[in-house]
Amino acid sequence: MGLPEQWFADEGVFDRVNAVGSGELARAAREAGVRRFIHTSTNDVFHAEQGASFDESELAGYPKVTAYERSKQKAERLVLPERRAGEMEVVITNPTAVYGPGPSSSHTLENGLLRPLVENKLPALVPGGIGLVFVDGVVAGHLVALLGTFARK
Questions:
Q1: How would you label 93-121 residue by residue, b for 16+ Cβ within 10 Å and e otherwise?
Q2: Higher-confidence residue: 132 or 153?
Q3: 120 lies in a domain?
Q4: How many domains does the chain have?
């Protein structure tokens, strides 16, 4: 559930779809007796110092920069409480920027970054890098999330 875009003129759409929508889906799933709910978030919800590593154990304690990132932080905070003892397990995946075949739009990673980079038309390439994952890796991760066994914290 969610909008895989980073920018919209109406930033409220991120909150309505990514956060509120995800929370409502998780609640409805629990009420319907779903045993495991898989929520797709992003690695952008975590805090990481420049050049340092991080893990997925804690969301950043501050609002992230973009409306997309903030909506994903809020979504995790809305989805996790639906995990209630014995009722429903919640598994959250946190992929990086996804590329590969899928719904076509002008806002894909390929059109916005990779194609201009290859064509030498990217106006700037800021230092720091970006994590990329091919769509097949995301699918494999979701299958593990669905079928795997997880230790509860």
A1: bbbebbbeeeeeeeebbeebbeeeeeeee
A2: 132
A3: yes
A4: 1
